Amino acid sequence: MLFTKMHGLGNNYIFINLLENTLEEEYLPTLARNLSDVRFGIGSDGLILICDSKVADFRMRIFNADGSEGKNCGNGLRCVAKYLYDHQFIDSESFTIETLGGIVEVHISEKKKEVEFVTVDMGEPKLLKGMIPMKGEPMTMTINEPFTIGENLYHLTCVSMGNPHAIIFVDNVHDVPLEKIGPIIEHAEIFPERVNVGIVTVKNSKELDYRVWERGSGITMACGTGACAAVVAATLNKKIEKNQLITVHLPGGDLEIRWDENNHIWMKGRAEYICHGEIKLEHFTKEKMLKASGQ
């Protein structure tokens, strides 16, 4: 089966086109774990499937490196949009993609021989605890709210962009041991579906530094939904103003984010190919995958 490996600012995934192929549903989590493994597979932050949709032009399914299925992925969306347009599955420069977190609209922003930049309408952020989800009064918001998690006190601002994010503001993102606090907060009892953990430094009124621990994948070079959540959280904490173009600096590069007057989040960034190849499915037979999953 053919695959394409792509990245958005270093957040890299293996993409399989299921518009023309099929895979058995039962084995997708284990396949994602095997393919994402850097030693015995291809190596990636996860697996993304490009599928038909009954409610949008296309559908995107995301499996994290640990095999769990994700709800949304901003960097993945840009890559899927580039793949579909470059491979002539659609000729319109604007189209819709279904995710578990909802339907989003994508726009081809800049192209030469191939698509270079994609802008995504990420929709409206969800701010209520019951929608993120997290424990507590479901109709209230979490804005700089103190929580004791493990042995430490954290002030969290929580946002869902189709997937849950907990944002922490710090003086310098590079001084924070994200590899230590990330998994602790990800698995905290207050988050029944786990959570992505973002640390943010406000550089000025139009720039943020951002690092992320992604649930199911760990530290990654970039997270599109997380960058959107960071802008929302900074706005809610009155550190920046709404309806401004904000540059979010991530380890893998920059994203341009705007929370507009209609409450929608717009994200613009690059999407790039790494390689194309062929997966030898005999290495991922049912028996081998069942053994790998401990069944």
How would you characterize this protein structure?
The protein is globular and about 50 Å long. The chain contains 5 helices and 18 strands. 17% of the residues lie in helices and 40% in strands. It folds into 2 domains: 2-123 and 272-292, Diaminopimelate Epimerase, Chain A, domain 1 (Roll); 129-263, Diaminopimelate Epimerase, Chain A, domain 1, CATH 3.10.310. The protein has an 18-stranded mixed sheet that branches. It is α+β, with helices and mostly antiparallel strands and 295 residues long. It has helices spanning 28-36, 74-86, 178-186, 224-236, 286-292, and strands spanning 2-8, 11-17, 46-51, 58-64, 69-70, 94-99, 102-111, 115-121, 145-149, 152-160, 164-169, 196-204, 207-214, 218-220, 246-250, 253-259, 265-270, 272-278. The mean pLDDT is 94. The longest helix is centred in the N-terminal third of the chain and has 13 residues, at 74-86. A hairpin with a 6-residue loop joins strand 3 and strand 4 (58-64).
Supply the CATH architecture of the largest domain. Roll
CATH topology title of the largest domain: Diaminopimelate Epimerase, Chain A, domain 1
Number of helices: 5
Largest sheet: 18 strands, mixed
Strand content: 35-45%
Amino- and carboxy-terminal Cα gap: 25 Å
Low-confidence stretches: none
CATH class of the largest domain: Alpha Beta
User: CATH H-level name of the largest domain... which superfamily?
Assistant: Diaminopimelate Epimerase, Chain A, domain 1
Tally of separate domains: 2
Structural class: alpha+beta
> Mind telling me the C-alpha Rg?
19 Å
**Shape descriptor:** globular
User: How many distinct beta strands?
Assistant: 18
Taken in chain order, the helices and strands follow as EEHEEEHEEEEEEHEEEHEEEEH
Residues in helix, %? 10-25%
Mean pLDDT across the residues is 94
